[in-house]
Design goal:
By secondary structure, the protein is mainly alpha-helical. Helix content is about 55%, strand content about 10%. Strands 1-2 form a two-stranded antiparallel sheet.
Length: about 130
Amino acid sequence: MLHHYYAGQTVWALHWLTLDGPLAESTVAAFGLEAEIRDAGVPPVHLFLRLRQTLAHPARQNELRSSAIAFEILSRIAGSHHEHCDPVVTAAVDAMHQSWNDPVMSLKKLAADLAGVWGCRTIQGKISKY
């Protein structure tokens, strides 16, 4: 699912990849990554679209294709060293780092928290509708 976030006049998008199953932790660790929120720079949107299309049609062959696409995304994430410099983005990523495993974490809560800190009604208005 694609979400759009807006901060003032700046438009930015967030793509994420979630892995589950008995090999999820070791797979992520094999790429030198941890369970975390990470800014990996410009996302490979075409790969996320292909992954979504492949997952929409469950079949053994599509599971294999999806794995290959996910591994390509993971390898790009592992090779990225992008640092974000927008203070609102930094605050959002920091908030996600702190509560990524909190069951009450939601986009609405994140928007409200950021709006409270930054006084950005735009953030709350745009994110809360998702």
